[in-house]
Amino acid sequence: MYAVAYRILGNGADAEDVCQDAAITAMARLTDLRDPAAAGPWLKAIVRNNCIVRLRTRLPVPVGLPDDSALMACADDPAEIIERHATRDWIWDGLMGLTPALRDAAILRYFTRMNSYQEIARACGVPVGTVRSRLSEARRRLAEALPETVAGRHRDVGALTAERREEAIALLSSVPSATPQAFFGGRWSPYAEIIWPKGDRRIGLSSLFEAFASDYADGVRYRVTNVVAGPDITVWENQFVNPPEDPDHCPPAATWLLRESEGRIQSVRLFHAPRPARVCDSDHSG
């Protein structure tokens, strides 16, 4: 694996990072491997895909793109990993062995669309260099821990994910008037802190429901696309379905980072996916 990565990237540190990422991806998708004799080519294919992603991040970012999130699209579908009960539970046991800082970075990197270093840095409120070091340490610890968790007994993360998905759909996909604030009284702290994409902070759910009602009145709908659930952190991802007459009303998608304590959500941080760069046609005269 390292030989393949080094031949493509020509950099030892990058090759090591890619191999570590590939090992974790392979562990998560182990049920994809039907023929043990094909393990070598399968692993090398994962390495090559990761190398392509790494090479793309080295390219200059075109004017108009705020960061490299569009270039960091991962070939592996996180939803597939989450839906595999046989692997999901033991992977989460490995993740829960990490410190909260390492776990948050790893969850965002491997299980959500928010997988660029810049986006993770914004979500965690730390410099990009800190994200790199946290992910490196998380990979090292997971590489040691995951093989030991495979044979053990695991909590049913699938049931927790299903429960959290229902919660996300109830809040994001229904008519605002049909989801009264009292509905969330058992799960949401009345003093939950809501942090909006531009950094505005509000206490309580009122600002959420006001935003939902405003978008709904303007013809915007939300479609839940992914939910990642752990004992004290949940990530929601949704697409915005804008009205045909106003296709740019909302950004393409959003990521919600929900943190909880003692079973109640204490803070929600919301991030919007960057809008795609506009391509302007030049006026060519004969």
From TrEMBL:
One GO cellular component term noted in the UniProt record for this chain: DNA-directed RNA polymerase complex
Domain RNA polymerase sigma-70 region: 2-58
This protein's UniProt keywords: DNA-binding, DNA-directed RNA polymerase, Sigma factor, Transcription, Transcription regulation
Parts forming coiled coils: none
CDD domains referenced in this protein's UniProt entry, alphabetically: Sigma70_r4
Superkingdom of the source species: Bacteria
Domain RNA polymerase sigma factor 70 region 4 type, chain residue ranges per copy: 90-142
InterPro entries, per database record: NTF2-like_dom_sf (IPR032710), RNA_pol_sigma-70-like (IPR039425), RNA_pol_sigma-70_dom (IPR014284), RNA_pol_sigma70_r2 (IPR007627), RNA_pol_sigma70_r4_t2 (IPR013249), RNA_pol_sigma_r2 (IPR013325), RNA_pol_sigma_r3/r4-like (IPR013324), WH-like_DNA-bd_sf (IPR036388)
The UniProt record lists the keyword Transcription: yes
Assembly information from the UniProt record: Interacts transiently with the RNA polymerase catalytic core formed by RpoA, RpoB, RpoC and RpoZ (2 alpha, 1 beta, 1 beta' and 1 omega subunit) to form the RNA polymerase holoenzyme that can initiate transcription.
Family label: Belongs to the sigma-70 factor family. ECF subfamily.
Protein name: DNA-directed RNA polymerase sigma-70 factor
Organism: Microbispora corallina
